[in-house]
Amino acid sequence: MDGSVPLKFNHARALLWFSAAQGLALAAVLFAFLGVAAALTGALIGSTVCFFCLGLASKYNDDDSPYLKLSEQIAMIGMIAMLPVMLVAGVLPGLLVMLVFAQLALNLQTHDFRRFYTGIVVSFVLICAGAAQTRSGAYLIFFLLYGISLCIALAHAYAAKQAGQDVGRAQAGGVLQATVILTVVTILVYLLLPRFPAGNVGGRPASSEFYRNSAWEAQARDSSGEALDIARQEQSTAEQRQDGEAPASQRPAKSTPAQSDGFSYHGFENSFSLDPQTPQQAGNGPANGIIAYMRADSPLYLRARIFDRFDGVSWSSSATTLTRFNMEREGLALNVPEQPEFESRRESYEIYVEHNLGDYIPVAAQPAQLRFPGTVVAMDAFGQLRSPAPLRSGTAYAAESVLHVRDQRVFAELSYDNLPGYLQLPADMDRRIGALANDIAGDASSGLDAAIRLEQHLRNHYDYDLGSVFTSQGRTPLSSFLFDTKKGHCEYFASALAIMLRTQGIPSRLVTGFSATNQNPLTGFYEIHALDGHAWVEAWVDNQGWVLLEPTAYYDGPMPEQQTLSAQQIDRYVERQKRLSDAIGDADISAGDVLVALWQGAALLFTILLAWLKLAVIQAWPVLLVLAVIAVIGLMLWKHYRRYWYEHRLAARVTAYRDSDIREAQTFYLQSIDELLTLRGYSRPAGLSIESFCGWLPDQLAAQVPAGLTRDFNTVQYAQSAGLTGQDPAHFRQLFFRLYRVR
């Protein structure tokens, strides 16, 4: 049976499961764009409509189908509907609408396996397009259900093709076997398939929010002739206010959420304290829920605020100037200096805000271009970007940053603004802090070497503890962290590193923002949780640039080792989820905990099997070599003698057969004779009469064939109501064994 055999309605199970797969593909796309309710509705309606259309089409062939005209009209409607959807919602939704109509039109023409396979390709493109759009890990459910449905549909179609038009001959065992094989192969391909970068092209994502501020716009027009790099204006103290700063009613809010369900983290305020009487939390509002998503080719650290002054308890900024810039249609372009000794690469990324944030615009250093949904933005004295109002849920923007890399280290910027706070030390600083820094970095060969030594000391000798509460006992919290408890959260690590760097004459500053390094292996988006609200350090080293330093071992840093295989990415994601759960200390068991346990159990079992296999190879390789030689010899012998084995089994089946009905017995023996001849390579070609076939047999076999055998074959084949007259079944039984003994 070849691929041109029409897929008729008697392949009902294949049609049913294929309809389910199409409905799930449609549901997945609706889930990615519209949510759960639309997905459930789409699954029900889509599956029903697909099954109805496939059932109608399976009753006809191309030549006599009355639905060809209707199919063409549906395809035309899809092309017409694509244009307004593209204008309103974007290119991708428009193309998906056209694909849905194309699938429906194709279903009305699915008369054969070729169109069946084409329909599979269309549905697969649909669900992949949804995967590229969705930011929810729940999309995995749709993907799994779609894959299972498609595997079962393919298994039924394969069994039906093997059985011909009689679908009843498609045994359940064969369908189950094909389903299992397809499912296992699909999972292995997914786990071992390399994941390629997203290939961001710097587009402008659709945002449901837009920001404007008339006072900011007027100030931006007044300073329109100034270069962007003058936004960083030196200021001697944090209390001094610049003349150009907007009145209180027009200044951005102090990074407070716009609504009660928003995310707030005190590290994003104008100043924050390490007071041990008010232990820090990573954030509040959505617990450790997802704050935002980032679509990017690489993990990034997104900056929100920069602090340079520390009084032993609190951090603040010595410069508070804001300079406003009107947003151009193509976005805001910023000057980014480059140096030949650095590898400078551009990273394009998109941010999708899920919970209300403050007025900061998280971007990676050093931003080169911003496409923001607003008329005006501001830049502070450190080069950080501000919005006219706190960011609201649904805001989406795109940016492009230049990453400067040297010696496997990321440098945030290559220019130095001579602010006085970069070397400032607390007046009552514990002398032991400087002594500790001297011991660690005393014989360092360069400023970068000293900075890395201090960073690694904190990562290797101190523990991350989100819920730690410190008691100062008359000392600063920093001293308590460094010499007593030796555990804390990221602000303590960052504060300790920044101050120890300054004791070595290395300018430093504390940076707060988001660690966007947790990539969902299914959606490809980086998930930014509340715990990813983070503090780290930038240090000016060797008069070359601000190197990014990550002193907290809990966090990976902006350049973790890139994993290419899906299995490796899943493993990294699961390990990250476990770290999040451990850091929160939540004793309740969630669905995520169950998935983590299942994946880790499967990974452990796979590791044990591989270890056992490796041990067996090492200890028993001579035996394995002998077994391999025996297997090769056995395979060669099997290829040569397998015909005799099959003939022996056929003879055993004939021997064990007990005559019950003359007609059935005659048919059984004649079919056994035909099978015996086929095993010996004498299969009757299609269209060759039995008379010609018997004359075509070699002499030693033809001599054993009685003259009436052809008549008996024709009688069994065409005379359905009568048996063979004048021939006892034992006659054919004897004929079978006479032919069997001829070698």
What does this structure look like?
The protein is an alpha+beta fold. The protein folds into three domains: 12-192, no CATH class; 214-587, no CATH class; 630-741, no CATH class. It is built from 20 helices and 20 strands. The chain has helices spanning 12-33, 36-57, 68-89, 91-107, 113-133, 139-163, 172-192, 214-222, 431-441, 447-461, 477-485, 490-503, 566-584, 591-619, 621-656, 662-679, 690-696, 699-702, 709-718, 729-741, and strands at 272-273, 290-296, 300-307, 309-310, 314-316, 322-326, 332-333, 343-353, 363-364, 367-371, 376-380, 385-386, 396-406, 409-413, 463-464, 487-488, 508-516, 526-529, 533-541, 545-549. Strands 2, 3, 7, 8, 9, 10, 13, 14, 17, 18, 19 and 20 form a twelve-stranded antiparallel beta sheet that branches. It has a three-stranded antiparallel beta sheet with strand order 1-5-4, with no helix packed on it. A hairpin with a 3-residue loop joins strand 4 (309-310) and strand 5 (314-316). Mean pLDDT is 76; it is low at 1-7, 165-170, 225-260, 277-286, 469-475 and 720-724.
Number of helices: 20
**Helical fraction:** 40-55%
- Total domains: 3
How many strands, which pairing sense, and closed or not: the largest β-sheet? 12 strands, antiparallel
Low-confidence stretches: 1-7, 165-170, 225-260, 277-286, 469-475, 720-724
**Structural class, from helix and strand content?**
alpha+beta
Mean pLDDT: 76
List how many beta strands DSSP finds: 20
Residue fraction in strands:
5-15%
State the separation between the terminal residues, measured CA to CA.
Answer: 31 Å
Spatial extent as radius of gyration = 37 Å
Large-scale geometry: elongated
